[in-house]
Amino acid sequence: MAAPESGDGNNGAARMVTLISSDNTRFEVEAAAASLSQTLQLTILDGGGGGGDGIPLPNVDSATLSKVLEYCIKHAPAAANGGAPNATAVDRAELERFDNEFVNIDQSVLYSLIMAAHNLEIEGLQSLVAKKVADMIKGKSPMEIRRTLGFPDPTPEEQAEMNAHMLEYGWAYE
Amino acid sequence: MAPPSPSLMVELVEEVLLRFPPDDPASLVRAALVCKEWHRIVAGLGFRRRFREHHRTPPMLGVLCDLREGKGLHYVSRFIPTSPCPPHAAHYGWRTLDARHGRVLRCCLPWFDRLEVWEPVTGEHCELFNMPFLKTLSFNAAVLCSAHGACDHLDCQHGFLVVLVDSETGTIRVHVLD
């Protein structure tokens, strides 16, 4: 992904854009970082988000947006280098360390993050959180997965159906 | 913050399930039993295609081990899973000649007079031909996907062909069977 041209005539200064969360908190961030979002990139390339306008994000609250931007700011330099083909092993290891710590968070924040990453089309973030959720549930039984993800308890009918399937696919539970 | 309702998660469930380990098919089976929606996703052709594209390298599900039991002509070909997947199978009277792209080519012992292709994942098997003269040949054979260059072999849904080489007549002969 190419970084947008920096500066609005401000020589050397990175272009900044303002994002407004659903609870009306304003975040000023470098355009290059916000452009990790495919959705925002179009608006930013059209010159939006600068000055006093700001880009409203009615689906993302401030706690989630703050977390999303933390990811974007960290990953923006590598993304500006086209996925950082010439990044050093140290840079890559640092990003990996950051990613691992970044998703080591409360489950409800993870859900908000994956929804935001999906809505804002931030592929790397969506992939990172999806992998984390997959790791959380891959070894669990169907009931444990339901509990982990906050599903309501199954109806007796659903429970009977699950039991029948578990008998049929017994090898998956050995 | 309360977890979002499952209906909100559904559009992202596929993204999560895509990242399940391909060498643990049991994890996908368990996920399919979580609810009807998840079952629909896992069973869908679209998801399976994306799953294969995401992981690219087909997983190793197990090894075939040809054994001789006792001192007589009792042969057994055992499929020993290296991942939690079916089948835990033992087939008496067969020896494995080749295995490729999810198919196993084996011949009947002790007379080497029948060949068949077995698909361990589906359990289907297909006897190729009954050639009594096979047992007089010195041969070996391989099973291949028949879609030359058109298949990425991540999930061969095409037919197969068997190439059999024998050197019984002093010259090497190649037979292609499809």
From TrEMBL, chain A:
It holds the Pfam family Skp1_POZ. Residues 16-75 form the SKP1 component POZ domain. Keywords: Ubl conjugation pathway. GO terms for biological process: jasmonic acid mediated signaling pathway; protein ubiquitination; ubiquitin-dependent protein catabolic process. It comes from the Eukaryota. InterPro entries: SKP1, SKP1-like, SKP1-like_dim_sf, SKP1/BTB/POZ_sf, Skp1_comp_dimer, Skp1_comp_POZ. Pathway: Protein modification; protein ubiquitination. Residues 124-163 form the SKP1 component dimerisation domain. The keyword Methyltransferase does not apply. Belongs to the SKP1 family. Involved in ubiquitination and subsequent proteasomal degradation of target proteins. Together with CUL1, RBX1 and a F-box protein, it forms a SCF E3 ubiquitin ligase complex. The functional specificity of this complex depends on the type of F-box protein. In the SCF complex, it serves as an adapter that links the F-box protein to CUL1. Part of a SCF (SKP1-cullin-F-box) protein ligase complex. This is SKP1-like protein. It comes from Eleusine coracana subsp. coracana.
TrEMBL record, chain B:
Coiled coil: none annotated. InterPro entries: F-box-like_dom_sf, F-box_dom. This is F-box domain-containing protein. Pfam families: F-box. Residues 11-49 form the F-box domain. It comes from the Eukaryota. SUPFAM superfamilies: F-box domain.
